From TrEMBL:
Domain Aminoglycoside phosphotransferase: 32-265
Pfam families reported for this sequence: APH (PF01636)
Protein name: Aminoglycoside phosphotransferase family protein
CDD domains recorded: APH_ChoK_like_1
Highest taxon of the lineage: Bacteria
Coiled-coil zones: none
Organism phylogeny: Bacteria, Bacillati, Actinomycetota, Actinomycetes, Kitasatosporales
Organism, as annotated: Streptomyces zhihengii
Length: 303
């Protein structure tokens, strides 16, 4: 499935060729698709490895960041995180760098895997508290650690307004876009977060949260790792059931202003996902739509 105009297509045969050229000792191992997100395509390699291939040049920029920072962050976190084991070079048919990580056993967070959503929300909050509490080790909000979700809402107002317009023009979202835009605009009127810059995972959605024995076991895909304001980190809790969301907020003791800024980030990312992927990635559009409906339900409950 091609999602971006400048995407580099990959398949199992291409992965085999890259392995034969650069890691021949792995080339004969079993290879199977292991999912694909908006930025990377993944293949499981044998029992212990995962191959990640960026879809675009822009996505490939995250690989060096992960190789540099994940080994430094991992010992300070209480949940498993990816372990890079190979840095792949561009090869015939694939002009981008790629990577191999240690495979982490676990299932995506969802109704079939999570036993207690309130406990899961508390576990996720504990991970966020740990990550945000790690010293920056000299890192600053610059270069590849300056992803937009660690900035201010106001800096994104232009493209969020554009994507609301795209969704309205489509006319088939079945969402109360006026209400969502009102929530977004209300958050724009709030003061910016006074919190110091922290480490941010940047994309704590259920597909990046692995479960074992009903509890949070690992957090994967640090391609959006950045340094910045913490508000947007909390946005993905609207992808989780209300029990997890409420437990998460309580565990972190998030005040109303922080919560409303986080909700606005959830609106922004959801609306943008619907606008950008509406013709190419229906499953992701469904995820974004479900998030936006959860936001509206919460807002209705507050009235």
């Amino acid at each position: 499935m091609t999602l971006h105009e400048n995407e580099v297509p990959v398949d199992g045969a291409l992965v085999r060729e890259l392995l034969r050229e650069q890691r021949p000792e792995w080339a004969a191992l079993p290879l199977a698709p292991a999912g694909a997100g908006t930025e990377n395509t993944m293949y499981r390699l044998g029992d212990e490895l995962l191959v990640r291939l960026p879809r675009t040049t822009e996505a490939a920029g995250s690989l060096a960041k992960e190789r540099h920072w994940l080994p430094r962050l991992a010992p300070l976190l209480g949940r498993a995180v990816p372990e890079p084991v190979h840095s792949g070079d561009p090869g015939p048919g694939y002009p981008l760098p790629w990577s191999v990580h240690r495979w982490i056993e676990g299932a995506e967070a969802g109704p079939a895997t999570v036993r207690d959503w309130a406990a899961f929300g508390t576990d996720l909050a504990a991970f966020v508290r740990e990550l945000h509490g790690i010293g920056l080790m000299g890192a600053t909000r610059a270069g590849d650690l300056a992803w937009y979700r660690g900035g201010t809402l106001g800096a994104c107002a232009g493209w969020v307004g554009r994507d609301f317009g795209t969704c309205r023009a489509a006319g088939d979202t079945h969402l109360d876009l006026d209400r969502l835009e009102a929530l977004w605009n209300a958050a724009l009127e709030l003061p910016d977060s006074p919190a110091p810059h922290v480490w941010l995972h940047g994309d704590l959605k259920p597909t990046n949260l692995l479960v074992r024995e009903g509890r949070l076991h690992a957090v994967i895909d640090f391609g959006a790792l950045s340094v910045g304001l913490p508000d947007a980190e909390h946005a993905t809790v609207w992808d989780l059931p209300a029990a997890a969301r409420h437990a998460y907020r309580a565990a972190l003791d998030l005040d109303d202003a922080t919560w409303h800024r986080a909700r606005a980030w959830a609106v922004a990312v959801g609306v943008t996902g619907v606008a950008y992927y509406r013709h190419t990635f229906p499953a992701f559009v469904d995820e974004c739509t479900a998030r936006l409906r959860a936001i509206l339900a919460d807002a209705d409950a507050e009235v």
